[in-house]
Amino acid sequence: MLISLLHRTTFVYAGKAHDSFNEVRLRPVDDANQICRSFELKTDPSTQIRDYIDFYGNAVHYFDIVAGHERLVVEAQSEIETTPNSARPPVPVVARSGLGNAGENELHSEFLVDSHYVPLEVEVWKEAKDALASGPSDVWGDVQRICRHVFTSFKYKPRSTGVATLATDAIKLRAGVCQDFAHVALGMCRCSGIPARYVSGYFMKAQRQPDDEEASHAWIEAYVPGFGWASFDPTHDRPADERYIKAASGRDYADIRPVSGTYRGGKTRSLKVDVEVRESQAAGAMP
Amino acid sequence: MSLLSNPYDPGDFFDEMYAAGGEVRPHYRSLVERLTSLSLPEFERRRAAVDLAFLRRGVTFTVYNDSEGTERIFPFDLIPRIIPAREWSRLEAGLIQRITALNLFLHDLYHDQKILKDKVVPAAQVLSAKHFRREFMNFSVPHDIYVHICGTDLIRDRDGNYLVLEDNLRCPSGVSYMIENRSAMRRAFPNLFQSYGVRPVEGYSEMLLKSLLYLAPDRDERPNVVLLTPGVYNSAYFEHCFLARQMGIPIVEGRDLLVQDTRVYMRTTGGLLPVDVIYRRIDDDFLDPSVFRSDSMLGVPGLIAAYRAGTVALANSVGTGVADDKVIYAYVPKVIKYYLDQEPILPNVPTYLASDPADRKFILENTAKLVVKSANEAGGYGMLIGPASTKEEVADFRAKVAANPRNFIAQDPIMLSRSPTWCENGLEGRHIDLRPYVLCGEKTVVTPGGLTRVALRKGSLVVNSSQGGGSKDTWVLDEDK
Amino acid sequence: MPSASKAPAPRPQANVMLSRVAHSLYWMSRYIERAENIARLLEVNLQFIIDFRGYDDAHLREHWGSILASSGDAELFDKHYESADSRSVTEFFAFDLRNTNSILSCVFAARENARMIRDQISVEMWETINELYLFLKARSTADVWAAGPYEFFQDIKRNSHLFQGLTDSTYSRSEGWEFIQFGKFVERAHKTTRILDVKYHILLPDAGDVGGALDTAQWQAVLRSASALEAYRRFYVREILPWKVAEFLIFSDSFPRSVHFCVAQIDEFLRRILGESGARPRSEAARSSRRLLADLQSLSIDEVLKDGLHEFLVEIGMTLEKISDEVVQTTMFYQAESTQEEQQLQQQQR
Questions:
Q1: What would the mean pLDDT of C306-319 be, rounded to a whole number?
Q2: Cα dist from C277 to A28, C274, C296, whole Å
Q3: Given pLDDT bands bounded at 50, 70 and 90, which one contains residue B209?
Q4: Which structural domain, as residue segments, surrounds residue C325?
Q5: Is residue A285 part of a domain?
């Protein structure tokens, strides 16, 4: 599927901001499931933009705006071609004992321990036990059960949580948005010994309501031995398919912040995010 | 009456001055002769003069209990610690070997991570290290040197063998005391000093400047090197000023610098001046609020971006703390073997890792008999000396270890060597260690001597300044006696 | 933000001066000078009131009121004190830390600035100011008043002189020296205009009092406040005539506290600081300074009196502020502590 993507972030400051140093993780990845055909990043005020690849393989673009400015707009546009569902291999059934391979676990140890947003505390363990009460099955099967558990037991409620909400807070609230659903699911996978990582990206809704708030989306990927990282969306109880675009991954939200940085000056008066994910009308057959 | 009128008891330790039978070691004989001929009042006079000089020159460190801060002189003992030439050559070779391996290790950790893939060091230990800086992955640094200034702490066991206690690869301090102590000794014992043939340490600042200049990006003009300090409130501020002045470079704080278009500049009365090399005495966490801790008022936003762009060099580099993590320390002998295919010349103190199940069991069962340390504290804090602690203290610490095993190691207590030290009424043995300073530039150079720290309290093994430690001048002889 | 948009300077000189360091040297110098001036002002006026027994309550209030008015802090005083008398005014100007322009506040601020750049100043300079600070910190208003405020003022003046003398003899004639001198003379010139303005503008005598005992005594106090009585007498012989006092304090080119003398120094150091070596000034600050100096070199006291002395003095004060502001902005500007890092707000992923 060919998808065109727009992600625009607008900061308006009380007074002027200056010495603004920022990093963005907005460029969709290239992997087995998608290819980023084009990517353009613009800022207003405009400034030179440089890039590097971070520890998790995410493309990071960075820039600074030293002079005083009253607002900052960061706009990323890209065209992504996603592998059609029919061409994606199924996730195999792998026994849980397969995870016990010390070699593989060493390199995935990060995705099995505490992280900033996902402290592996008692509540998380308990939730994982509840989800897998009938005992463990195979790796992918358990991941799906965990995510289904989150989908059914948690309420999707915008504005019930904030950007700083931890997985443990969301569990107490039993509500949240996709960021929280992902964090909770991650915690449960990790407590069950399944390496899992946070994915930031976008989802293309086929039918949009007029007042639909489009935003960036979050889901998880779990490690299935012999297969690799398999993705699942706990907010919608389904694997990520050709309608999903992956932008970045890491331990949790802290590693993938789409736009982050510091500046000096007045507080931010408003933050507006515009996201548009559309099936592209561009011609050209896909293999 | 002289210092040596009262009998000296070396005790059941390796004594620097006296051998087992009570005989004075050959390299101390001239010193002993001099001390025997020196009357007590004369000795006192010289001691007082040295103390006064330190006070006047402001050779202090500051302890901050309130916003005032109390300035203390780092107590100095006039009896030097002497190391024969041959003994030093071995130490020197061992230190150079170690820092070379550590630099290769750091480069590997922040690039291909071959040592992790070959499972010589467990990836989990590295990735969970407090100072492993993911932001620094795949960064290229000038000449692939990560640690430019290293202070490795050495101790001697009961048999007189030198062991590495720990490496300090982030912002090692104490060098200013080494230099000031030497000045003090020269003034106190001018003739003795001359006749002994001691290798000089005064060249340190010049060597340091040279290593810093070596890092400068290629440019036509003379590179601008600065020292970045957290400011007057830092306990080592005296040393920062001292070194900057000795090297003839500006001393700056974060707010004196700004980054524009990935270049670092200094705010001067004549405008913005580009900066090429920064000798930073600020911890990674506080260096750049746009990348690390955003509440840091001490850093420079955009500094890491400039570093990444290669327009400025930092000494020491970012992320070196992963290699002086006390857990990673336990793997250094393997690290030396892996990169250099050599056995370590200087061994580690045998270490137990709480993260290893068998070791953990041993540690928890024997806490009262061990020295237990938390992986990333300094200054003698976060440490339990089992045999010297109360039952409550031991129980407390044991609970901490059980809760967070990755963060703790333990070692059998080493009976540190002792050196005769002037205490109130006469010479008594006090435990010491040694911190030599290693500079890595075009060549790797070890300053002959370093800082010998003394635990001034009777029976204490803790040598740190903030907890009752003092220092001695360290004499490396330029030829064997 | 001037610094950020400036083009990078040419290659480093042997000794670069950080803007922040220049800033601290400048303010350290100004605060010491300020403390000394206030001490002198208070001392003279206290002495005056004691000497001149002809003062009734109304005159007393008016007298202290005038000092308050000239300081610009009258409103602040009224907030914290009931009425203006010797004790309350002395308290306000000498010991009150709520008054940022009190002697205590100035010494504390001077010491704080000195501490920030301790490695730049000599050990003697630091020890002097630190000892003064410690000494003041340990005393209370009650102590000082009991011991006699004159002792206190003597201490301040003595230490200030000591500090300035040590600076003279131990501080290298470098760029730092220029900032210290610039600050000192800006402060001093300012103060002289204020001292003069007090009497001329506020303590105007009634028609019958002109030339009378009170009037003359007040003029003597004005001269004493500027340490100028002996110098004046040497210059003008005996008579203390108002217009002559004004002329002396404004136009004398030899008396070190006259406005003219100070502005000549300000002009010199300003040009060195800004690197103005050409015949024609380039910066606005140098232009203003040159113009002011020219006026002080050429105007006569009659002209000034005709157009209004008060206005003249106020104008000089404003010009001095403008000049010093510009120099600070150009050379000593650096991020003040108050500009915190703000984090870019984050948006949740929905």
A1: 91
A2: 58, 9, 22
A3: very high
A4: 184-330
A5: no
